């Protein structure tokens, strides 16, 4: 979307975006960034994503474990916890609610425009 700064909108959605990516499979930082970018979230900054991972871990929504890597140092993997799954479901419900309300607003004709 050229000309639109989506950063503030995405900032508010970063928890649900990261949790959803980790619901499909555990991942380490760089790999999570790659999956987010493959999903179209190119504008998410590395620091924002790593900060979100740390915050979600501290909140108990993610756990971590270390795996050896053939290509350098060991990697810290993040995994969704049971509380993280519950939080993701709550966030998904909230997203659907807000999305439905926004769509209703967008579907409301503007005064003076044909329906």
TrEMBL record:
InterPro entries according to UniProt: Metal_resp_DNA-bind_regulator, Tscrpt_reg_PadR_N, WH-like_DNA-bd_sf, WH_DNA-bd_sf
User: Which SUPFAM superfamilies does the protein's record reference?
Assistant: Winged helix' DNA-binding domain (SSF46785)
Q: Which residues form the Transcription regulator PadR N-terminal domain?
A: 18-89
The family database entries (Pfam families) matched by this protein are listed as:
PadR (PF03551)
Q: What is this protein called?
A: PadR family transcriptional regulator, regulatory protein PadR
Q: Which organism is it from?
A: Glycomyces harbinensis
Native organism taxonomy? Bacteria, Bacillati, Actinomycetota, Actinomycetes, Glycomycetales
